[in-house]
Amino acid sequence: MSVVDVNEVEDHERFRAELASIQPDGRRRWIFARKPRGRFTRWREVVSAILVSFLVSAPFVHVRGHQFLLLNIIDREFVLFGMPFWPNDFYLVAVLFLTGIVTFVVITASIGRIWCGWLCPQTVFMEMVFRRIEWAINGGPVEQAKRKHGPWNADRLWRTGLTIGVFFAISFVIANVFLSYVLSSNTLLRYIYDGPLAHTELFAGLVFFTFVFFMVFYRFREQACLIACPYGRYMSALVDESTVAVTYDFVRGEQRAKWGKDDAQMQRKALSEGRAIEHRQGHGDCIDCHQCVTVCPTGIDIRNGIQLECVNCTACIDACDEVMNKVGLQPGLVRYTSLRSVEAGGKHPFLTRRVIAYSIVWVLLMSVVGTLFAIRKDLDVVVLRQEGTTWVTSTDGVANFYRLQLINKTGLPMPYHIVITSPPGYELKMLGMPSQIASMQILKGRFIITRTRQASVSSHQAVVLKVVYADGQQQQVETSFLAP
Ligand code: SF4
Ligand code: SF4
Which of 376, 395, 416 is the last residue of a domain? Predict the structure, then answer.
């Protein structure tokens, strides 16, 4: 096995051997990204605002008594979109989990890391919240770099202090939201009301998570996507040349070359005369301005092709479009497209056989999920004969004992009663059971069925019971009755 010596790699191939954010000696190369402007950034701002609002409010919204989203691993309580999942719903969670993975596979194989760029909380918070605060306090990339490499004067001290304070405060809010997903928002609000001293262990956990979030957004940043996130790693196995991703159109862009004075004059003339700019002899449309690199939050050059570090944030599309508009060339030199499509001049089909095959599996799994949800019940009943018993005789007739389990998956207490629908001549008597099932509880108890003297005489009789709930739902269950 040969080992590649990084020092022997040609400069233009260096990106293959090194991470843009790590220097050859292993030290961090800090990325000072420029603020992007353009249509994709505006759309991402809208999507991010919706996502952050949803993420923060979801634990505080309740549907039929359930928290909208709850992932209480400690008490094994899970609620997704207001629907509670119980340990006996494990099969459903497993199918959902599998469907989630296949959904990721289908999406990544067809439209790349759309999740990373648009929906991942790490990117949304980093690019739309924390980096914006940093720009507001510390200015653009040039000012930030100057300050970082300059002395610790008053200006640097107050800006750094303010940045740390604001980052820490937002991280504290995020840690609280995170806890409301794990503990439930009601528990969290109760703990807040009680004060930190009443729950010191929990408060210590809260400070710990605040610190973790703070470090992720203040220091770790793009390294979380590069080193810690498994999805970024798997992505390389899922995408191919047909995957639509943020791509540089090298057919149109190469040979890249900076604009000289003549080019600028020619451009001004063409623009003033309202005609399209002429292409420079022997050169492509890329004017090698590096604007796509300066906005990149992971510090890479999209012109090198699809790279592991690219989170498909679209900032380079906006940056390049801005340049193209300024110089009078067609925007879209960097755009959402596939490598094959670039090579084929935009004529490569979006739906490849691989994507179609994945999509069929996905549709099948979604049908299974849909069916399982359709037949799933919020209220359930289990009737079993009392173990080790057959019958007893008394002056009233012959009696059998049963065990009863009533499951209430709703967020409300549920009154109920049970009647025998057939055959006639059988009577049911509850043995000290409460008349309602508490919310999210399994009510266990016993009852007795007595065959009166008038009923038909059979040594093995099927008995049908009906459970009637206060909300109008009914369930029938059949059991057997034994007699001498
Ligand atoms: S290369 Fe473009 S899309 Fe990829 S991370 Fe950088 S700016 Fe975002
Ligand atoms: S912003 Fe566009 S024109 Fe400028 S270097 Fe990047 S790809 Fe080339």
Answer: 376
